[in-house]
Description:
The chain is mostly helical and 373 residues long. The protein has 15 helices and no strands. 71% of the residues lie in helices and 0% in strands.
Amino acid sequence: MDTIFIIVCILIMWPMLFSVPVLYGSSSKKEKTSDTLIMTSIGLFVAFLAWVSFGYFLVFNLSSSLFEGFFSYVMALQRGDNELILEVVLQGCFFLYAAGMFIGTLIHKVEWKFFALFIPIWLLVVYVPSAFLLWNEQGFLNQIGALDFSGGLVVHLTAGTTSLILSRTFKEGVLEVPDRHSNMIINYIATTLICFGWFGFNLGPLGSASTFSGLIILNTILAISGGILGYLIIQKSSLTSEDVLTGMIVGLVTSTALVGYASPIMLFIVPLISGVVTCHLRKLTYFNDPVDSFVLNGIGGIIGTLGLILFANPLFTPAGQTGLLLGGHFTFALSQVFALLIIFALATIGAQISVTLTNLIYSRKKVVIYENQ
């Protein structure tokens, strides 16, 4: 591990995480902006505490004994094991982003207490098994050769699917959320911080500066460009600043599955397609989700994974996995499709379980405060 490299990735990701509440606040009714900022910020800090307390250990523990492994983990944190601490915080940023994505789905629908309970449960039921399967070397999906560079499946598909479940579960009433026109300068600044932080998001899995760093930086920029172009193709003369900002985020989301595994030209094509598809879906569908988390994260993560199946380059993949359009065998494609289906099923079932458990712990009548207003 390159200590300075990881520190830089963490520091540029942190402002990215807390730019999300700014965007959600701008999507809120004016009188509810404060509630939205409180809900999102508390949700993110609860997520971090849960991640440090048990999330990281359950995902990356390699010890045969659960109790001894957890004790060693706690003691290592207490004695200031620098390498472990940096790894915990870096991985925690990925989890915080996942949590931040589905929090926006329930703007105006719940108070902060809902997510204070829901997020730790969701971490245990959805995120831990998903990340273990793909990112732990002992995980089944990892062992069969499935790939997910920086979270197309682990972060974005789980978060997007959870948003879909939340939007279907808390569907009473119609959310009348104004367009993001209150202060587009603030929205642009927040989105720019997210784009800047995404370099840490995409570079972080490398662990150190390497010969692939330049490729990932270029691919990240191309992903932003491809996402914007996709929205431009659909919107054409009616393109708004919101479309540009959304296209930027879609491009980044789509990049995460394959940003370190595909050549620049291929990487540009996949977010472009994702921009076209998600822009079209946002115009046709309504999931009672004011921030379109399922469309942007769920669909974006799926398209990124499909792009990986087609365009994975053996020059960059860890075991020479090759996309179908580059002459690869169906074995890799099948492993990726299997991983996509498993993670989607985990997120769908786990999100519903998390809602049920949260409501059992804290009465829904106390949690839902806006749906009858």
